[in-house]
Amino acid sequence: MNKLILSTALLALTAGGALAQDTIRMGTEGAYPPYNFIDDNGEVAGFERELGDELCTRAELTCTWVTNDWDSIIPNLVSGNYDTIMAGMSITDERDEVIDFTQDYYPPTDSIYLAPEGDIDLEGAVVAAQTGTIQAGHVAETGATLLEFATGDETIAAVKNGEADAVFADKDFLLPYTDDGSLVVVGDPVPLGGGIGMGLRESDTELKAKFDTAITAMKEDGTLNTLLKKYFGDETSTY
């Protein structure tokens, strides 16, 4: 267990239960469209904002939204700065040692590489990825040189300014950057993670149960699939 996992686990022991307070604070990054972003009015928007608001309604909870940088999003959950994480976070065994997850609200999907040209040797390339992501972990295992950045936007900028040869991230995040032809998909898609779920403190079992019930209901009545297609297109994975 590394120091980050140990320290966040200890914090989790001291964090209070979310349902003891009147308002559930929904934590997100606000910088990973179309999952979550800040709109022209300065408000959290995107797939997870719309889904999260609906889940709160179905669970009969009053919720507000809080933004936090990705690299400290788990420690600030367990220390009590907010009560959930909805930030395009893949469910992994390592994260599950520190926090708990609801069932997935987005099935496992592919990650892809983008580069200015399609003939990049990915194994010998310098590849940009957002720090603390499953994509960064994957790049580190491939033999490529990993260049980590705090935000997804910075990984794109690193490729465009020549600092990195390619970028690796969620397919849904990267594909819009191919629209102007400056970046192209390189290599084959890579399946990673166990789907995307809502992160919660280990102690918040009642809150997890409420959100799990709401997610199940949205899967069963088709409204979750409708949201997935709205934000990610008709070809996206659904339930």
TrEMBL record:
<dbReference type="InterPro" id="IPR001638">
    <property type="entry name" value="Solute-binding_3/MltF_N"/>
</dbReference>
<keyword id="KW-0732">Signal</keyword>
<feature type="signal peptide">
    <location>
        <begin position="1"/>
        <end position="20"/>
    </location>
</feature>
<protein>
    <submittedName>
        <fullName>Amino acid ABC transporter</fullName>
    </submittedName>
</protein>
<feature type="domain" description="Solute-binding protein family 3/N-terminal">
    <location>
        <begin position="23"/>
        <end position="235"/>
    </location>
</feature>
<dbReference type="Pfam" id="PF00497">
    <property type="entry name" value="SBP_bac_3"/>
</dbReference>
